[in-house]
Amino acid sequence: MSVFDFFGMMANDIAIDLGTANTLVYKKNGGIVINEPSVVAVSTDNKKIIAIGNPAKLMLGKNPDEVRVIKPLKDGVIADFQVTELMLRNLILRAQKKRLLVRPRVIVCVPSGITEVEKRAVRDSALHAGSREVHLIAEPIAAAIGADLPIDMACGNMIMDIGGGTSEIAVISLSHIVVQNSIRVGGDKIDTDIINYLRKKSNLYVGVQTAEKIKTTIGSANPLKQELTMDVRGRDIVSGYPVTIKITSEEIREAISETVATIIDAIKRLFERTAPELSADIAERGIFLTGGGALLKGLDEKIRKTVDLPVHVVPDALECVVKGAGKVLDDIDRYRQVLIKRIED
Ligand SMILES: Nc1ncnc2c1ncn2[C@@H]1O[C@H](COP(=O)(O)OP(=O)(O)OP(=O)(O)O)[C@@H](O)[C@H]1O
Ligand SMILES: [Mg+2]
Questions:
Q1: Is 169 a residue whose pLDDT tops 60?
Q2: How does DSSP assign 257-314, residue by residue?
Q3: 289 alpha carbon, distance to own chain's centre
């Protein structure tokens, strides 16, 4: 009997997008039931969990020595096993809304560039966290399914997922990745760029939460029709006192321009390795962007100008990967071949 034969009958199977910035859980036939930052706060003396997800993220940069605020994933892969397992266990339990009588089968989305060791780490964490069976799916494939691209046809589909820790770009045809490029640069790097820029240019020290807020409020990759300003509070590096200064979207664009260029360069490099017939399909259909980074103002326009091709930001860009994995869960017979076949032990 195939391992999937019970998929259709099990009500509690779930798909998880275990992201550097956000973790989303899709419950079979139930849609997205959890969407929270991948952040955990633990007590430093007894290692007990204090908060997971949104409340933990609010503690970032505001914690006393007694509390450690941890982002257990880095660059798209697990950096802290123990904490990832704790987080997963909590999320799986919450998705079930009851004690686990039958442990769920789980599909976890993983970056396409991950190593065998990293795949095993994800599988083992999900197993220890209470799943019965773990299957992996490459994020670009999940994203493409979530975006309703016709991935099973003999046709080149180019999708780029720009997350917190990684940006992955892939060309998919006949349900498989033909070529891919993965860079460990994403939204987190943009936040760091903003912190460094303000420190150097304005003598202002801000934390990651503020940097992210600046990025999502006035950050842009391309000149805006109406440039924006924002009052930012931070610490003056010289005096040490809290101050508020006005910053502009032009300044932030300069701060992040190098990282934006790196992301666009990854697209150009992939085209160099893409067969001409597939390139022709992509030229006609365009490049599809997903992930939170795709929401950076003017990024689509900047890419369009640089590579001279149509660019589309997929609706619900932040949920696209888990939605795709959820579709696989809901219709496993149709999508079986897209799962990663085997993890070498
Ligand atoms: N409106 C926005 N403008 C710019 N960036 C945004 C916006 N909204 C979210 N982001 C950024 O998107 C990133 C999170 O995206 P996403 O949830 O897709 O990442 P992830 O899947 O957790 O990470 P990864 O795929 O790298 O593991 C964060 O860096 C966040 O700041
Ligand atoms: Mg992601």
A1: yes
A2: HHHHHHHHHHHHHHHHTS-HHHHHHHHHH-EEEESGGGGSBTHHHHHHHHH-S-EEEP
A3: 12
Is the distance from CB of 282 to CB of 308 less than 8 angstroms?
no
Which residue has a Cα nearest atom 19 of ligand 1?
163
In one-letter notation, the amino acid at residue 156 is G
List the single range of 49-53, 93-97, 122-126, 293-297 with lowest mean pLDDT: 93-97
| 268, amino acid identity | K
What is the edge-to-edge ordering of all strands in the sheet holding 40-43? 49-52, 40-43, 67-70
Q: How far is the CA of 344 from the centre of ligand 1 (A)?
A: 31
DSSP 326: H
Residues having CB closer than 6 A to ligand 1 are: 19-22, 76, 163-166, 186-188, 212, 215-216, 219, 291-293, 295-296, 318
Other CB atoms within 10 A of residue 92 CB: 22
CATH code: domain 14-142+320-338 is 3.30.420.40
Would you say 21 is a known binding-site residue? Answer: yes
The full set of domain ranges for the chain reads 14-142+320-338, 151-313
CB 77 within 8 A of CB 123: no
Q: What is the pLDDT of residue 6?
A: 47
For 151-313, CATH number? 3.30.420.40
pLDDT tier at 258, thresholds 50, 70, 90: very high
Q: Which of 101, 77, 75, 100 is nearest to 89 (CA)?
A: 100
229 is in an annotated binding site: no
